[in-house]
Design brief:
CATH topology of the largest domain: Ubiquitin-like (UB roll)
CATH class of the largest domain: Alpha Beta
Strand content: 15-25%
Number of helices: 8
Radius of gyration: 21 Å
CATH superfamily of the largest domain: Beta-grasp domain
Helix content: 25-40%
Structural class: alpha/beta
Strand order of the largest sheet: 1-3-2-6-4-5
Shape: elongated
CATH architecture of the largest domain: Roll
Largest sheet: 6 strands, mixed
Order of helices and strands: EEEHEEEEEHHHHHHH
Number of strands: 8
Length: 259
């Protein structure tokens, strides 16, 4: 029999309140998703109050402050702090973005922080990206050229190099793919915006000599054509890229018989 209600242990409950704003110059409340697989408790949302006057300007600064000064059990990913690595991608006030590039002053309190949506959660704000990166590997994201060794560089003209702008900058943060309803519905078969953008990055590279093979591989009703141009991906990308356009170009190349 189909189950139409979520199991009791999957419902997000109200959690603990940490700190109060007594003595704070610029109090800011953050409501953060918490879940520990080692416990049998349901997920919860804990509330933290920090003083912006003693905190850095970005949301990642606030999370680090909470972990260092209030609750060391809070778990999240971070690395570069400069919008380059993609590690700190999460859902902030309903939008997927990077915590290290999200200014606190731009957020309406209380700030609601959740892991990237529709992904398995390892703990707290840490999603399991194993499947996402397996899909990335499936597009074979490397330069393919004849097996014969070359004794010189594979040169590009300025125009050929410029064709890669807006593609190579993808940092695989998964903000776009996890904002895509088609990816929510078909995560096992649809490659999603990020990985299709990465696929097109190599299709568009003049040095690559496997265009036909790459397009044939993508010419699948689920891997590619589950994209319905909803365009959440382009809106969500923290790097300002346009995965929707890249996907449309792949479809156009296939339709024109390039495969």
């Amino acid at each position: 029999m189909a189950q139409f209600r979520l199991p009791k242990d999957s419902r997000v409950t109200s959690g603990q309140r940490h700190n109060d704003e007594t003595g704070m110059q610029q109090p800011l409340v953050l409501e953060i998703y918490r879940w520990n697989p080692d416990d049998r408790d349901a997920p919860r949302v804990d509330q933290y109050t920090i003083d912006r006057a003693t905190c850095g300007p970005m949301l990642l600064d606030a999370l680090i402050k909470i972990k260092n000064e209030i609750d060391s059990t809070l778990t999240f990913r971070r690395s570069c702090r400069e919008g380059i690595c993609g590690s700190c991608a999460m859902n902030i006030n309903g939008s997927n973005t990077l915590a290290c590039t999200q200014a606190l002053e731009e957020l309406k309190p209380p700030v609601k922080i959740f892991p990237l949506p529709h992904m398995p959660v390892i703990k707290d704000l840490v999603p399991d990206l194993t499947h996402f990166f397996n899909q990335y590997a499936s597009v074979e994201p490397w330069l393919k050229a004849p097996d014969t060794e070359s004794d010189s560089e594979r040169l590009q003209s300025p125009d050929e190099r410029e064709a890669l702008d807006g593609l190579y900058e993808c940092i695989l943060c998964a903000c776009c793919s996890t904002s895509c309803p088609s990816y929510w519905w078909n995560p096992d078969q649809y490659l999603g915006p990020a990985n299709l953008l990465q696929a097109y990055r190599w299709i568009a590279d003049s040095r690559d000599q496997a265009t036909r093979q790459r397009l044939n591989q993508l010419n699948d009703s689920f891997a590619l054509y589950r994209c319905h141009t909803i365009m959440n991906c382009t809106n969500a990308c923290p790097k300002g890229l346009n995965p929707g356009k890249a996907i449309g170009t792949i479809k156009s190349l296939i339709a024109r018989g390039k495969s």
